[in-house]
Specification:
single chain, alpha+beta, Beta-Lactamase, 5-stranded antiparallel beta sheet, 5 strands, about 25% strand
Length: about 160
């Protein structure tokens, strides 16, 4: 059974490894994730939502049809709307996308840096952590209602931080 402190620890590690933020949609059914964690800059999240970028986001498009890991630099053919170029205006200059399908559900993640590309080792660690969280947040693993509620609360806190955060 998943432990909320273990999940928080992995999320914190992901946050530390992605200085310009991340977005992870866990257990997507149709187009809605069971959990969504975002730490991208708020101005980007607001613009992304306002312009409905989810429909043309190359990370999402790639993540719904592929599994594995890919550098944002290699997503050019998936980015005909220029979403990644727009995200660079918010300091998200380098990144990786990860997509996992296991246990009948799919999780898709994007991680960003402003200073340099992720190393192969860093990307492999991100992928391992996303896979671990995918399994830890799975309903099939018998997550307790208390842990589920705590994760929903954490998702809201990370995606919509208060004024002091």
């Amino acid at each position: 059974m998943a432990d909320k402190q273990d999940i928080r620890t992995v999320l914190k590690r992901l946050e530390d490894q992605s200085p310009t933020g991340f977005a992870i949609a866990f257990h997507i059914k149709f187009t809605t994730p069971e959990f969504l964690f975002q730490t991208y800059p708020k101005a980007w999240i607001d613009l992304y939502s306002e312009r409905g970028y989810v429909m043309s986001d190359p990370i999402v498009r790639w993540g719904f049809s592929e599994t594995g890991i890919i550098s944002w630099a290699d997503l050019g053919e998936w980015d005909d709307a220029g979403v990644l170029a727009e995200s660079a205006r918010f300091g998200m200059n380098h990144g990786v996308a990860i997509s996992i399908e296991d246990g009948g559900t799919r999780s898709v993640a994007g991680f960003a840096r402003n200073d340099r590309a992720f190393t192969d080792e860093e990307a492999a660690q991100l992928q391992a952590d996303v896979e671990r969280l995918h399994h830890m947040t799975s309903s099939a693993d018998g997550m307790s209602p208390t842990v589920r509620e705590a994760l929903h609360d954490l998702s809201v806190q990370m995606t919509h931080p208060g004024p002091s955060e």
